Amino acid sequence: LRRESSLDSVSNFSSQVSSTMKFKAAQAMVLSLLAVVAYIWLRFGSLRYGLAAIFALVHDVAIALGLVALCHFIYDNAFGQALMLTDFKINIAMVAALLTIVGYSLNDTIVVFDRIREVKGKSPNLSAEMINSSINQTLSRTLLTSLTTFLSVILLYFLGGDGIHGFAFALVIGVIVGTYSSIFIASPVLLWMSQRGQKA
After folding, report:
1. Are 112 and 140 in contact (CB under 8 A)?
2. Are the C-beta atoms of residues 131 and 48 closer than 8 Å to each other?
3. How many Å apart are CA 128 and CA 188, to the nearest integer?
4. Which residues of the chain have a pLDDT value below 70?
5. Would you put residue 126 in left (φ > 0), alpha (ψ -120 to 50) or beta?
6. Residue 31's pLDDT is what?
7. I need a surface site. Which of 8, 25, 119, 171 has the fewest CB within 10 A?
8. On the CB side of 124, how many CA atoms lie within 13 Å of its CA?
9. Please, what is the angle between helix 47-74 and helix 165-181, to 10°?
């Protein structure tokens, strides 16, 4: 009864364990993106929709990772401390946040693409006017959903504690980036690919 009951914490990993974790994380991201392409291809009946969505998802993850990396350089100055930035690490929680960003952005992109498909109807060609009309019809839904999600994750970031601080930071970035990418990245890429297909 007098013995210490606490377990020793693990603070260091060997390079073999960390390289295995990096490989598994990259493998999870690639497999999830391939599954996304297959799902959207089956749902919309065209590979263009899947590739446009993947382009937006890669953009979202790249921006989130870039800002996480940028925090390493600015977390110890006054600006970084005011924003409660820390030297975020790529760990299991961060990988989970990146996969959550993929899911969130994909959901928004599918809503926009679904409306594009409805507006297009049986027309053989996709036009900029069709995409503009589709985005206008879904804009209020996109903004309301994003604002509600943003308020939740910003509260998690500032009040959630150290355990989920990095996760919440990645989600704050992901909600902002995922909102504009479905409108300003995925839709224009879909239009560009469709116009190239019409010329070919």
Report:
1. no
2. no
3. 8
4. 1-18, 198-200
5. beta
6. 84
7. 8
8. 3
9. 140
Left, alpha or beta for 121 (phi > 0: left; psi -120 to 50: alpha)? left
Digit-coded pLDDT (tens) for 157-197: 999 888 899 999 999 999 999 999 988 999 999 999 988 87
Burial class (CB in 10 A: 0-12, 13-18, 19+), 92: exposed
What does the alpha-carbon distance between residue 179 and residue 166 come to, in Å, rounded to a whole number?
20
Which two three-digit tokens encode residue 158? 């500032």
**Confidence at residue 122, expressed as pLDDT on a 0 to 100 scale:** 82
What is the amino acid identity at position 156?
L
> Which tokens sit at 16?
């073999």
Position of tokens 């493998």?
Answer: 27
pTM summary value: 0.81
User: 71 is written with which tokens?
Assistant: 């925090």
